[in-house]
Amino acid sequence: MGNWMELAERVLAGHELTDDEALAILDCPDEELLALMQGAYHIRRAYYGNKVKLNMIINAKSGLCPENCGYCSQSAVSTASVKTYKMVNKETLIRGAEEAYRLQIGTYCIVASGRGPSDKEIDIVVSAVKEIKERFGLKVCACLGILKPEQAARLKEAGVDRYNHNINTSKEHHPNITTSHTYDDRVRTVETVKEAGISPCSGVIIGMKETKRDVVDMARSLRALDADSIPINFLHAIDGTPLAGTNELNPRYCLKVLALFRYINPTKEIRIAGGREVNLRSLQPLGLYAANSIFVGDYLTTAGQEKSADYQMLEDLGFEIEFAPAPQARVGEKAWI
């Protein structure tokens, strides 16, 4: 390829990448990497300027999952040592939201392990979200597994803004990662939340022995699903999981993946998610020239880097945190405007 800025201009004019163009991004010579990222930044800046969205996870229910996903330490086939507990109470979810507000987190993510939520678990989330929206005005994302239409309707009524359900990998590669549910099961949940009027969030995990064509297929599938937010995880292989010991990634390839998703999904929120610290390493700041969103703090069962390092990184880049809670937001007895 070579002329990445010209390709970026064509994307901004409405061009959809061909397969050859998409694969050329993943095969970009390392000496052209900065030019590729400049093109990705050109697209990113057109839609998001230099703003960065911050996200924070609360692991609301840990372990105890009957699924057999090969990457997950919480699955039934994992022998990894992880905390296991049932859904936390409403007060715990609200305390997490208060911390998120203090840290200028734009989206507070309530994540629970398992195939899908029980009605009792939905009750807890609904009750907490109503108070979180009233007190802090944060955007709330729920990630509770496979969802029924009536559950999606309840979450929407409570004020859930976004629902995350990752496709994780390509349809072709999916049976190599899990067999306890299908790729279509995941797509169906994304469509269910869209029908309920909730913003769809769906992303991928890179580094699970997929091919480069699989990666292109993932980016195209998320464009077809019209996911508003696309978290890109890079496999952090955990001992005790079927994918333990897998180490296929290097920081330069990770940047090429982020660029690919920006070129194929130019208008969408692209978030650098789990595994960025161990896979992008010292090149993390460059990732934000393609992505416009990151997680702050720890992930589900793995630790993120110190929060102060993330804020310092954004300051050093000259990027601006996007944080606009509702004006009635308050912490304790003090009103915060």
Summary keywords:
15% strand, 12 helices, globular, alpha/beta, two-stranded antiparallel sheet, ten-stranded parallel sheet, disordered C terminus, 337 residues
Gist of the model:
This protein has helices at residues 4-12, 19-26, 33-48, 90-102, 119-135, 149-158, 183-195, 212-225, 251-264, 276-279, 284-287, 307-317; strands at residues 51-61, 107-112, 139-143, 162-164, 199-201, 204-206, 229-234, 269-272, 293-295, 320-322, 330-331, 334-335. It is built from twelve helices and twelve strands. The strands form two sheets. Strands 1, 2, 3, 4, 5, 6, 7, 8, 9 and 10 form a ten-stranded parallel sheet that branches. It has a two-stranded antiparallel sheet with strand order 11-12.
What is the ordering of alpha helices and beta strands? HHHEHEHEHEHEEHEHEHHEHEEE
Shape designation: globular
Biggest pleated sheet: 10 strands, parallel
- Structural category is alpha/beta
Average pLDDT over all residues: 91
Residue stretches low in confidence (pLDDT < 50, at least 5 long) are: 331-337
What's the number of helices?
Answer: 12
The rounded Rg comes to 19 Å
Find the count of extended strands (DSSP E, 2+ residues).
Answer: 12
Helix content: 25-40%
